[in-house]
Amino acid sequence: MAKKILITDDAQFMRLALRNILTQNGYEVAGEAASGEEAVALYSQLQPDLVTMDITMPGMDGIAALKEIRKVNPSAVIVMCSAMGKKDLVIESIQAGAKDFIVKPFQPERVVETLKKLLG
Amino acid sequence: MKPEKGQLSMRPATFTTQQCTIAIGVAGAITGTVMYGMSLSTADRIASIMLSSPIRTFDRLAASAIAELGNMITARAICQLAESGLNCDITPPSIIRGTNVKISTLETPAVVIPMVLDVGQIQIDVSLIEREQVNLRAA
Hints:
A: 47% helix; B: alpha+beta; 8-stranded antiparallel beta sheet; 3 helices
């Protein structure tokens, strides 16, 4: 069965770009969240195998959402996907339990490689 | 075609926008605004490339693509600033469309960087100031 992925990004364009990469590579998009709050709510509802998480978003940012989701499920697989690749943010994300950090703009191969590594 | 940087200039704090402007706020050790101005046809061309399909109407998706371009460029610059010890953050981008819109960055003038690309020209307005200077002004 195809692995289910929840996409989180406030930019409609980025959600579409990620959706295209995922579906073209045999993954199922379980849902799309446009904010941290939405990602936390949809995580419990959809129980995806993996979450992609933007950081800079209006309202709850991606790092806060990452922490919230890891509270609900300490083994949740979350990959940060942000244009903001500052070292302190990368370190904070990984310490909070993110499995990887993809810096935008990304190549589709980079995304697929990460998903394969984490989901098999 | 390789993007080419045109002649740098300074502009006063108030200026008139181009047809399409992406505005991104910066806060932290450095504060202010970065703006990317372009014509609607340039915006259409960039969005078409990013979406891999021609734009018929400049809809929400096209706006989102253009906004994301500004977000990625600014974020990259902010990361480089962070490495030189100036830590700051950016706001989600906003898009301003329409001609003859006057924008004022109050007391902060801007450096204007014209970039020439094969899709047209993008004018980058960098209106930033170090926090210490802001404090001095307030005092």
